[in-house]
Recover the amino acids of this structure.
């Protein structure tokens, strides 16, 4: 089962988002494949190692390096095996579970192969410039 932790600044929008995503998971029949939970970004570290991927609200892209520096002393026990991914702004607004699920799977493949935080798709190093509202591999072919 893929375990996704959705994070926002204080937990308010991510809790709304997680409820909608959980509902979407059930409606899409993916409840045996995906588990979604939420936390404010500053409270996420305590549970990060229980998730495969942390999907961050777009405005958190500027806080990732500070977060990693703050938690560098226990990086290997908490964050080494958890991908950190910034949700593209247009996808964040729509929150279609199948699109997020597809991005999560793609990001996990990249993370397992390359490591590093944040993890991003080729050509999407600057999350603020991403204009797509669908999963990366729905917009670009996998081998591009």
């Amino acid at each position: 089962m893929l375990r996704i932790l959705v994070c926002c600044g204080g937990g308010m929008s991510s809790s709304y988002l997680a409820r909608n995503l959980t509902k979407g998971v059930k409606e899409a029949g993916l409840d045996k494949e995906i588990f979604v939970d939420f936390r404010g970004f500053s409270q996420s570290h305590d549970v990060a190692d229980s998730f495969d991927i942390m999907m961050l609200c777009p405005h958190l892209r500027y806080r990732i390096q500070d977060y990693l520096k703050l938690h560098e002393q226990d990086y290997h026990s908490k964050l080494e095996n958890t991908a950190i991914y910034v949700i593209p702004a247009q996808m964040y607004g729509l929150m279609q579970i199948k699109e997020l699920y597809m991005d999560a799977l793609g990001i996990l493949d990249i993370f397992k192969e390359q490591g590093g935080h944040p993890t991003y798709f080729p050509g999407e190093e600057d999350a603020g410039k991403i204009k797509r509202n669908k999963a990366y591999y729905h917009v670009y072919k996998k081998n591009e």
Observations:
- The chain has six helices and four strands.
